[in-house]
Amino acid sequence: MSKRWPSSKERAQREVLPLSLALYHAARDYQGGIKAVAVTFGLNPITLQHKLSPTHDPHKPNLEDLEAVLSVTRDERIMDSIGEMAGGGIWVSPCTATAETPMQGMMATLSVLQDRVAEMVKTLSESLEDGVISPFEAAELHLRVRRLMGAALAIEAAADQYAEARHG
Length: 168
Description:
By secondary structure, the protein is mostly helical. It has helices at residues 8-14, 19-29, 33-41, 45-52, 63-73, 76-85, 102-128, 135-167. The protein is 69% helix and 0% strand.
């Protein structure tokens, strides 16, 4: 892994961000950007852009802005940030198992878990190549472990949905 200072965009992909940055990147990366989030939720686009900007100090996002960005984007970086503020809480998104396809839903959930394990192992391996884990590498490992635990908890939710569908 590179030992250079990561950009804000790189940090958004590799670590748990502070809530203000998570909101900014979620809205910015959403199709249509911050303006699309604002319009979808009935907010003033310029005001929301100022509130979410990491370089515009006079304005800060509030709970309504959090609700708007999270409900429109459903970006996992926001939930990771909230979990971090709560002392390391882990969140689980509803899995894809349905009454019509419970087995496929279980398999999809297991596939996500497998992907998360692979991501975490790859990150750890890359971090240990030089024998030193930098603060940036540690932050990325923190995010990968958090996502892995969330995927493991999703197995439980998928199993419950599968059992309900089978024995309804």
